[in-house]
Amino acid sequence: MLDKDDITNVEKEYGADQIQILEGLEAVRKRPGMYIGTTSLRGLHHLVYEIVDNSVDEALAGYCDTITVTINKDNSVTVTDNGRGIPVGINHKAGIPAVEVVFTVLHAGGKFGGGGYKVSGGLHGVGASVVNALSNWLEVRIYNEGHVYMQRYERGHAIEPLKIIEDCEKDKTGTTVTFMPDDTIFEETVFDFDTLKQRLREMAFLTKNLRIVLRDLRGEEVNEREFHYAGGIREFVTYLNKSKTPLYEDVIYFEGIRENVYVEVAMQHNDSYNESVYSFVNNINTPEGGTHLTGYRNAITKTFNDYARNAKLLKEKDQNLSGDDIREGLTAIISVKIEEPQFEGQTKQKLGNSEARTAVESLVSEQLTWYLEQNPTVAKLICEKSILAQRAREAARKARELTRRKTALDGMALPGKLADCSEKDPEKCEIFIVEGDSAGGSAKTARSRATQAILPLRGKILNVEKARLDKVFSNAEIKAMITAFGTGIHEDFDISKLRYNKIIIMTDADVDGAHIATLMLTFIYRFMPDLIKEGHVYLAQPPLYKLEKNKKVWYAYSDDELNGILAEVGRDSNNKIQRYKGLGEMDADQLWETTMDPESRILLKVTMDEETNSELDLTFTTLMGDKVEPRREFIEENARFVKNLDI
């Protein structure tokens, strides 16, 4: 966090006239997706993040140390902070109180060069007004100079003037915002505690010493979690590595200011084979990286190669270690604070400021060089792991040549076990990944040959969470999937070559089936994540029960659905109920009707929320990694969400 001394004259400059107006609020309700990305659950939760971001900006400026987020019984949300409070004086350009400008005018705030904030996050500063526009109602209360000010809005419009409603302690300051999302705009309006928990935990990690409290008042008992990390991103790395075995004890940490950019880096290698590096700008996740991530990668690649050469760990004849070699098993957080971040694209997924690259590269090169010299044992461990990774990568390179998608002219045949479809337009095609010959045989008979391809796999595929790249490329089942999909993996990945619009994982509804599906998802997530990001991956939902009575047939996909059918048709002895143990128990007609027919089947789309992708990474590591205790804790915590799983 920047010290108060680094925030030049902010306190005296942050007044009513520092709230600058850029344009009006007309289009938000008509085109909400342009401002929050989507009106799905992800967009709903984004409303909370936008209000919290404003409070975090106060924390970054040094004026707030506690934020409380409360989900109320009526499913409205209240965000309270102990910052300075939004200015209540008249903004002379608008002729109305500054707080009303903030909540009713798009692109109005203290983040547009008016001296209000040195650094800030938020969705281009439009947060408060967009949340207001997309809410049935919103109330703001401001504590300042011994008074409590309040104003209420409905669907973006102030319905009463700002007024003092009561007095408070002279030294009490802060802002409280309560809003109710508009149910005519959002597909769902019920907030998910765990989704908010993950994002707020991340915010607390990124802002040293900030305390964030999340409360849910909707149940019989109050559900409350508190996040407070004095170690900041060092504790973030420890948290992300909790399901892995660190290669060395300490988290390596650097911080400093270069070119007016505040840089913070925390890193620690573990014994896994996957890189988990996350970058942030003013606490905003940048999943596509940008100049700050480029600077970091350049610095560690050069610094480790220089050290390995000087320490004679690399001989003259040896090739340099690649960045991928050095980052194998690395967990790292790169966080920069910058006055005027320039992002590529509306969604702020990639940083473009050139000074961020040079600042990060300079600071990391300097401080990492010093650290390695002072800690030769740690340096040697990292270099030796990187050299092993280099050897495995060379072996993988040879195996990878066999899995790269070729055209027919190149003579690369599709897998022999693949029953391909006849349609050549990928948009119309789908592939079912099925475990076992029995289910594969039924699926091949049941399918629509024009548009549906079947790829049966033998047994459980390799757990890529525990395997180096050379083992991945030499695994027969994984090679079959790579070749069938057509995209290649890692640096060879090209989504334009995808041969099927839908990749459907179809497994039995038992523990083994769930494990196989998780293995497949782990492989896709680690090596082809864009297939998930672009919405191409699905889970088939075969029925659990078949019920027959009086020559009529019903299929039930859950116990609740079965009970509903029984309540309707009667629970007498004429009922015949079959519990399907696996896909192989269904004949081709039943499999088509229940699971494969596009007109009647149920598919679950696999999605990724990049705003909390560090949590997703941790989930895969917990489920598929070596450590038993974190996996047991995860299963115990989440078992209540699992229904109808045969054991």
Please provide a brief summary of the model.
With about 650 residues, the chain is an alpha+beta fold. The chain is about 35% helix and about 20% strand.
**The CATH topology of the largest domain:** Heat Shock Protein 90
Hey, roughly how much beta strand do the residues contain? Answer: 15-25%
Can you tell me the CATH architecture of the largest domain?
2-Layer Sandwich
The top-level CATH class of the largest domain is: Alpha Beta
* Secondary structural class: alpha+beta
Number of strands: 24
CA-CA gap between termini: 49 Å
- The helix fraction, in percent, is 25-40%
In this structure, how is the largest beta sheet organized?
9 strands, mixed
Mean pLDDT across residues: 86
Low-confidence stretches: 1-11, 405-412, 639-647
Instruction: Specify Rg, calculated over alpha carbons.
Output: 28 Å
Count up the helices.
Answer: 20
Question: Structurally, how many domains make up the residues?
Answer: 4
Anisotropy-based shape: globular
